[in-house]
Amino acid sequence: MSTWLYQMNQKSWDPRRYRLEIWEGQNWKWRVGRIISPDQIPAAGDVIALFYAISGGEEYGFYGWAVIMEWLEDAQQVIFRPVAPSDHLKMDPWGNDDAQELANSIRGKVKQGTLWFVDDEKSKQLRNGIAQWLGAVTKR
Length: 140
Fold this sequence. Notes:
By secondary structure, the chain is an alpha/beta fold. It has helices at 15-21, 86-91, 97-107, 120-137; strands at 3-8, 28-31, 35-36, 47-52, 61-72, 77-83, 115-118.
């Protein structure tokens, strides 16, 4: 299983629209522009983290994650299904300094793109970061 970061564009898809349309358990098909990966391609069963960059809008951070159902190579599209805790994250995105630092480390020097491969170490950081963020919510 691999992990991917999908960077959403706030100018093309406002976070308010994302909150209205994306729900856990529903399949979605999105176009993938530029893929930044050493040699992997997305595959069914991989994880995809949904992220708004800080540039281009007022809201940013990790808004959810999903399971990739299918990669359509010819169409350059990914079919995915958001899973828990995506419904929670879209209401309270993980967008603190730790989230921004992790996203920057995943994207490296290439900040303009759509889909980045996430190595195992950063995948663990992503999972732990989301879990810590959700744990802290109960204390707020």
